[in-house]
């Protein structure tokens, strides 16, 4: 009610219609749909438990037609499988697809895998995807330079170079060490497979959140934060032009409208969009105030 009094029906149209109904029926931001998309994404979303899921599904299939004393268990298995299937099919038909949409169907899969926790056979099938995932994460600093041959835009190449630099020896060595520990855990047979996978999962969290994410954020968010702090200190009236960086408003502690700036305002935009913006502002001109990474702050001045 308070939102309606403040914004009218804008929230309903924006959240429920635009970002739910319209996202399902049309493609947003280039995230086009493909019926096979989530079939390929599922093993990565569930890492390091992808192998555990495969073995669990095979066991569940054997109980699918169960009866007698297995009837109650069979009903649970059917419920879990159908729960996941509804989510999987629903989002596979969506015109906009992002990996995290599949998380709505992961809860029944984890319950299903917990049901087959005592599994000990096919140990390598259970553990191999988790170990391979850790190895892939550890190899990212080595694989990133190869992307430079596929990028054309100078702005993208500059960001890639900054990202490669962010993977300093400490990050690279840390990722390699975590991958090595995961291999040692997989080779050792002192723990049950499910216990080993839980430990590999913890190593994966450390690798992603403790090492990988800070390195990436130093490239993608540090420039935005630096510019926001400058704008806040100077108390500039700032708008954004063709950039989607909500964190800029958070760091600046003020709402940043997204529109074409006018004379007397400051604009945050990407460096490669300055010429386009200046052509739209003629006869006004842009004066560069500060630059960090791919983002710039510029003031709009009237021609003398």
Explain this structure.
The chain folds into three domains: 31-119, no CATH class; 122-219, no CATH class; 223-301. With 304 residues, it is an alpha+beta fold. The chain is globular, with a radius of gyration of 25 Å. Helices cover 61% and strands 8% of the residues.
- The shape, in one word, is globular
Structural class by sheet pairing and helices: alpha+beta
Unreliable residue stretches: none
User: What fraction of residues sit in β-strands?
Assistant: 5-15%
Q: What is the helical fraction, as a range of percent?
A: 55-70%
Q: Which strands sit side by side, in order, in the main sheet?
A: 1-2-4-3
List keywords for this structure.
304 residues; alpha+beta; 4-stranded mixed beta sheet; 13 helices
Strand and helix layout:
Layout: H1 2-7, H2 10-25, H3 37-45, H4 50-63, H5 71-92, H6 106-115, H7 123-143, H8 154-166, H9 169-187, H10 193-220, H11 222-234, E1 238-240, H12 246-252, E2 266-270, H13 274-281, E3 285-292, E4 295-301
Parallel strand pairs: 1-2
Antiparallel strand pairs: 2-4, 3-4
Brief overview:
Helices cover 61% and strands 8% of the residues. A 4-stranded mixed β-sheet has the order 1-2-4-3. The protein has 13 helices and 4 strands.
């Amino acid at each position: 009610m308070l939102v309606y009094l403040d914004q009218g029906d804008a929230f309903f149209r924006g959240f429920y219609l635009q970002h739910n109904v319209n996202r399902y029926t049309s493609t947003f931001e280039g995230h086009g749909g493909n019926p096979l998309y989530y079939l390929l994404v599922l093993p990565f979303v569930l890492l390091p438990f992808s192998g555990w899921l495969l073995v669990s599904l095979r066991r569940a299939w054997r109980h699918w037609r169960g009866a007698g004393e297995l009837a109650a268990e069979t009903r649970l298995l059917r419920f879990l499988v159908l729960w996941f299937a509804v989510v999987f099919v629903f989002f596979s038909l969506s015109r906009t697809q992002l990996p995290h949409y599949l998380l709505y169907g992961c809860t029944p899969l984890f319950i299903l895998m917990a049901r087959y926790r005592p599994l000990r056979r096919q140990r390598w099938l259970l553990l191999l995807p988790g170990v391979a995932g850790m190895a892939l994460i550890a190899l990212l600093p080595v694989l990133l330079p190869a992307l430079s041959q596929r990028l054309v835009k100078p702005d993208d190449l500059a960001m890639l170079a900054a990202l490669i630099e962010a993977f300093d020896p400490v990050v690279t060595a840390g990722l390699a060490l975590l991958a090595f520990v995961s291999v040692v855990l997989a080779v050792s047979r002192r723990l049950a497979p499910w216990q080993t996978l839980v430990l590999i999962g913890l190593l994966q969290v450390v690798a992603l959140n403790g090492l990988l994410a800070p390195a990436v954020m130093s490239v993608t968010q540090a420039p935005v934060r630096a510019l926001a702090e400058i704008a806040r200190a100077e108390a500039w009236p700032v708008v954004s032009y063709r950039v989607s960086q909500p964190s800029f408003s958070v760091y600046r502690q003020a709402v940043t409208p997204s529109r074409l700036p006018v004379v007397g305002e400051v604009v945050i935009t990407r460096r490669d969009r300055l010429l386009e913006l200046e052509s739209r502002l003629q006869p006004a001109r842009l004066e560069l105030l500060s630059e960090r990474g791919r983002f710039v702050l510029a003031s709009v001045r009237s021609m003398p």
